[in-house]
Amino acid sequence: MSSDPPDPERAADRPVSDHPAPEHPAVAGRGRPVWIALGVALVLTGLGAPLGLLWAAVAPGTPVLKTAEGAIYATPQPEQPIAADGWFSLLGLGFGVLAALALWFLLRRRRGPVGLLAGALGGLGAALVAWQLGRRLGLGTYHRLLATAPDGTPFTKPADLRAGGVDWFLHVLPVPYGNLLLPALGVAVTYTLLAGWSRWPSLRPEPDDGWPPAGPELSSTPGDPPAR
Predict the structure, then answer these.
(1) Distance between CA atoms of residues 138 and 62, nearest Å
(2) How far, in Å, CA of 5 to CA of 79, rounded?
(3) Could you list the residue range(s) of the whole structural domain that residue 119 is in?
(4) Which residue among 34, 38, 51, 106 is buried most deeply as judged by most CB within 10 Å?
(5) Per the domain annotation, does 171 fall within a domain?
(6) Given phi > 0 = left and psi -120 to 50 = alpha, else beta, which region is 54?
(7) Contact residues for 38 (Cβ-Cβ < 8 A; gap 6+)
(8) Is residue 120 a contact partner of residue 37, using CB atoms and an 8 Å limit?
(9) Residue 4 falls within a domain, yes or no?
(10) Contacts (Cβ under 8 Å, ≥6 apart) of 116
(11) Residue 202, domain member (yes or no)
(12) How many domains does the chain have?
């Protein structure tokens, strides 16, 4: 075996590439699921605007009367606030179910924890946007009548939530509660059920491996591949 040292002139003649070695695909795409999850959450949050418009359209306003102390209910126990909460709950759950179905079928390659987390965050954001937008429609007119209308004037208070809202943890962190959580709950439950009933362990459709279908078409000639 020869142990001659390498020739420095031959080493100098070797071409040196100016381009670095390509990054491994697994390393290059490591941050892609995070960006996809954030994008999905932002899209679902934006869809909270039409959800809020729909809620404001179907939820009834509460009749009130102007008094010297402010506005009071026109009836002792009005049903309109309960109806507003009920409509928001139904619309929020329906939104969550539809969002989970869309994520499952449109992002087939990203099924799993990333899709579930993105859907839950987007459902929560959509609920906040829908609540704030829906409750503010007509609120300016309500405050104007409350300030300028004479006593005894009947008018309507816009729909708002009584079974949901936001608490502040340590006066710093907002914590939603009540029916504001229903869209995220609808996403989580529907997505989990779809994953549990999936026929593929990886949650992604697996390609055909080329085996012949089982059944009477199988033959037993020596050239045929074995059955599964």
Answers:
(1) 12
(2) 94
(3) 34-196
(4) 51
(5) yes
(6) alpha
(7) 118
(8) no
(9) no
(10) 187, 188, 191, 192, 195
(11) no
(12) 1
